[in-house]
Amino acid sequence: MARVLLTGFEPFDGESVNPSWLAVRAAAAEPPAGLEIATAELPCVYGAARVALRAAIEENRPEIVVSVGQAGGRPDITVERVAVNLDDARIPDVSGARPIDEPIVPGGPAAYFSTLPVKACVAAVRAAGLPASVSNTAGTFVCNHVFYALAHLIATELPGVRGGFVHVPYAPEQVLDRARPSLPVASVARALREIAATAAHIRTDLRVAEGATH
């Protein structure tokens, strides 16, 4: 059994739910064959999220880590390619912290690439009938903070672990009073199962065009 850790976030920015955590729990409730899925809900707080991520990894000893976060406004499942060593908060985190132009790891590399097969994961989600794309920016909020922290852990302490980050749209109940894209939590959970299974079975990524012009 391949051991996979899925992490999601608590609600933030005035929302009552976070679809990342709802979908992570739903995905783990029906894991793909051959996968053992553990879950952890991370605080949407700079610093504390890194601590909770490390604790979840130490507790569950996964081979693969897929962290998941909400990207309100995006219309599809976006598998992130790169994490940058920068905290720059447009809005405060749940604790009220709002770092500006601060490194996540002082002296660390400017960026890390995901160690998941991002293009193969996108292809698998599309094959399941769901919208997906490769993203080249995870932002500079707590999602990127966790993605970079995960990549730094893998690079410096956990060479046997592979990991990356996935952004998901709003859940439908979050956009009842506004015209914003959304996806049902059940669909997002299905996408996460596809991503977890693909990451467990594929190490060499597809060589197909998934870049962006802007």
TrEMBL record:
Q: List the InterPro entries hit by this protein, alphabetically.
A: Peptidase_C15 (IPR000816), Peptidase_C15-like (IPR016125), Peptidase_C15-like_sf (IPR036440), PGP-I_bact-type (IPR029762), PGPEP1_Cys_AS (IPR033694), PGPEP1_Glu_AS (IPR033693)
Cellular location(s): Cytoplasm
- Classify the source by domain of life: Bacteria
Active-site positions on this chain: E80, C143, H167
What the protein does?
Answer: Removes 5-oxoproline from various penultimate amino acid residues except L-proline.
- Please report which protein family the annotation says this sequence is part of: Belongs to the peptidase C15 family.
For this entry, the protein name equals: Pyrrolidone-carboxylate peptidase
What species was this sequence derived from?
A: Streptomyces celluloflavus
